[in-house]
From TrEMBL:
This is Sel1 repeat family protein. Gene3D superfamilies: Tetratricopeptide repeat domain. The lineage of its organism: Bacteria, Pseudomonadati, Pseudomonadota, Alphaproteobacteria, Hyphomicrobiales. Pfam families: Sel1.
Length: 269
């Protein structure tokens, strides 16, 4: 399965090396300095995304938050969470959630999940999911399916479908698994392959591995050695175990012409 919402929350802002020194957009800076709350929030995001100056980012978020700008309150929660400050993070998320900011509901759910409080996680994920938040819908599908209770399979599928319809690759991969294994539904190889392929095209490594196997065996989709090797190669490159283990078997069957076609396919963006 894909990473949890907890990891998504932690990656809302760039966590790698700061980008080369550069100035923020002039219009954003001028707007922020003139007191525009939206510009102040945008300037905070620029510092959070492009530099290691989290204190500066926080200061701009705070100025926007003091004017009632709800996204800035959420962003202050994100900064606090990244710094390991749970209580301030929860306070900011709760404040933003009460003011109608749905991503904060999902963030609280992620915090509860990280602490092992699944009842609390499900409660807040469901509130966000009902408001159309795709990550929360995906999280509900993941948690309900992980419970391995056949009575929850239908709800797990329903929430996964809502997220998948919004293009969520993790949910699409889960639906591929649900139809592949017949979890609460009649096994449907074609529908399974369709979901795996949709997620694979978005770069999901597990889905790439599964569609690669399906293409090799011709299960739910027409067999194609080159396409199978292509998706398994993509999967392996992302560290997926299916790609690593299964690719050699497919490569052994490739003709010289197949290999040339595969090389050309792999050069495509």
């Amino acid at each position: 399965m894909s990473r949890s919402i907890g990891s998504r929350i932690k990656s809302l802002f760039s966590s790698g090396k700061p980008a080369p020194a550069a100035a923020p957009p002039e219009d954003v800076r001028l707007g922020a300095e003139a007191g525009d709350a939206e510009a102040q929030n945008a300037l905070g995001r620029w510092y959070a995304d492009n530099t290691a100056e989290t204190a500066v980012a926080g200061a701009w978020f705070m100025r926007a938050a003091e004017q009632g700008f709800v996204r800035a309150k959420h962003n202050l929660g994100v900064l606090a969470l990244q710094a390991g400050q749970r209580e301030p993070a929860a306070e900011w998320f709760l404040t933003a959630a009460k003011e109608g900011w749905t991503p904060s509901l999902a963030a609280i759910g992620a915090m509860f999940e990280g602490e092992g409080n699944l009842r609390g996680a499900l409660k807040f994920f469901e509130m966000a999911a009902e408001q159309g938040h795709a990550d929360a819908q995906d999280a509900l599908g993941r948690l309900l399916l992980a419970d391995d209770d056949p009575e929850l399979y239908e709800a797990a599928r329903a929430w996964s479908e809502k997220a998948a319809d919004q293009g969520h690759s993790s949910a699409q991969t889960r639906l591929g698994t649900i139809y592949h294994e017949g979890l609460g539904v009649t096994r449907d190889p074609e529908r399974s392959a369709s979901w795996f392929l949709s997620a694979a095209r978005q770069g999901h490594p597990g889905a790439q591995g599964m569609i690669g196997v399906a293409l090799h065996l011709g299960i739910g989709i027409a067999a194609d050695r080159v396409e199978s090797a292509f998706w398994l190669s993509r999967s392996k490159a992302q560290g997926n175990e299916i790609g690593r283990v299964y690719l050699p078997e497919v490569e052994a069957e490739l003709t010289a012409e197949d290999r040339r076609a595969l090389e050309a396919r792999l050069r495509q963006p």
